[in-house]
Structure formats: structure tokens, C-alpha cells
Amino acid sequence: MRWTMAKLYFHYSTMNAGKSTVLLQAAHNYRERGMVPLLLTAAFDDRAGPSRIASRIGIGAPAQTFTPDSDLFDCIATHLQDGPVHCVFIDEAQFLTEAQVWQLARAVDDLGVPVMCYGLRVDFRGQLFPGSAALLALADEMREVRTICHCGKKATMVVRMGADGAALQDGAQVQIGGNETYVSLCRVHWREAMGARRDQG
Predict the structure, then answer these.
(1) Rounded to the nearest 5 degrees, what angle is found at the Cα of 136, between the Cα atoms of 131 and 139?
(2) What class of enzyme is it (predicted)?
(3) Which whole number is the average pLDDT over 162-186?
(4) CB 3.0 to 4.6 Å from 131: which of 96, 167, 173, 176, for a disulfide?
(5) Distance CA 167, CA 158 (A)
(6) Residues comprising the binding site for Zn(2+)?
(7) What's the CA gap between 95 and 130, in Å, rounded?
(8) Are the C-beta atoms of 119 and 97 separated by less than 8 Å?
(9) How is the beta sheet containing 141-144 ordered, strand by strand?
(10) What whole-number distance in Å separates Cα of residue 148 and Cα of residue 18?
């Protein structure tokens, strides 16, 4: 049996809470200490440019990308054959598949590499992303990256805005966008924005 101090972490929040900033700062801390981080992000989210993680405050770093077909255990194992990897950082972790979350758990358990996942917990309809649901089930530690609603309360939900400025009630779970598309709200103001039908179950 292999014993390791490595853990699978899930840092979750709503939109615009600074998840990428926290990730980039943590990866920078590893580099400052002469350690090697491996950065991964979803391939189809190229708002910061291809193969790149960037934050709204202007910092960024190159990253490898994953698709739903990527085997992340094999990816990490291959990197370890070429040299040390002291921590794996994953941005947009809500886009992981359930199978990929299990692959990351295996990398922690069998390869002894800590994995830090950063992503959204719920979508604009208040439903869990599949990757986030799997991380909530499997992560050794979970940490909330907090932001606030316009009323000052903690934001736990997000709405997707339409072209007319109104909150959309339906649509695909995944749609790439930033401040022009999504607004983080507390539950009270999310319910208000989404309409009374959300209160009817």
C-alpha cells in the first residue's frame, strides 16, 4: 500500500471570485521555492488565448489543455517520467468529467502528487456541474473562494444575462463568458432574478 501526504483539493466559487488569481499566485509560490507546478485548463475556454490561464487583474501563465477525452492520470504520469511535478493546478475544473476526477484522485493516491482544482460549483440554473459534483464527492479538502453580491452578502449563485439584460431561464449548461455574460448573486437576489417559478420546485 502506498501512503502519501498528497491530497485532492477543490477550490470552488461563483463567477468572478478570483479563482484564477488564487491559482496563479499559488503556482508562482511553488516556482519561487524551486518547485515545478503543472498547470492545466479546459481547451475550449480560450478567452485568455490558447493554452493560457489568465485572471481579470492582468496576470497569466501558460498551461496545457485538456478535453473531455484526455486521460489526466496518464498526462501527469508522463510528466513525472520527464522530471518532478510538485503540484498539479487545474483551472475551470467544473469542465472535468467524472472519469477525469477519478483519474486525478488516482494521481494523488498512486503517484503522490497533490492536485489543486479551481472551478465553479453550480451553473446559472443552480445545478451542479458534473465535474464539480464529482469533486465534491471525492476531494480530500474543499475551500470556498468568496465573492459578494451587489447587496454585500456572500454570493453563492450566478445568473447568465441575455442581450436584453434580463436573466436567462434556460439554455446550455456550458457557455463561455465573463462579466458581460455572468453576474454573481446571493441566493435571495438569484431567486429574484430568476423569477418566482424557481420557488415552485
Answers:
(1) 100
(2) transferase
(3) 65
(4) 96
(5) 10
(6) 149, 151, 186, 189
(7) 8
(8) no
(9) 64-66, 37-42, 87-90, 115-120, 8-13, 141-144
(10) 11
Binding residues for substrate: 174-177, 182
Per the residue annotation, which of 32, 92, 141, 144 is the catalytic one? 92
> Which residue numbers belong to the known binding site?
13-20, 91-94, 149, 151, 174-177, 182, 186, 189
Grid cell, residue 99, equals 472519469
Residues 40 and 91: beta-carbon distance below 8 Å:
yes
Residues recorded for the chain: 201
| Cell numbers standing for residue 172 | 446550455
Q: What domains can you pick out in the chain, each with its CATH number?
A: 8-145 (3.40.50.300)
Backbone angles phi, psi at 10, to 5 degrees: -125, 110
Look at the block and give the residue holding cell 479551481: 118
Overall pTM surpassing 0.70 (yes/no)? yes
Instruction: Please choose, from the candidates 52, 35, 39, 21, the residue with its C-alpha nearest in 3D space to the C-alpha of residue 88.
Output: 39
CA angle 69, 35, 4 (to 5 degrees): 70
192 classed as catalytic: no
Alpha-helix runs per DSSP H in 54-129 = 72-82, 98-111
The model's pLDDT over 88-102, given as tens digits with 9 standing for 90+, comes to 999 999 999 999 999
Report pLDDT digits (tens) over 112-140: 999 999 999 888 888 899 999 999 999 99
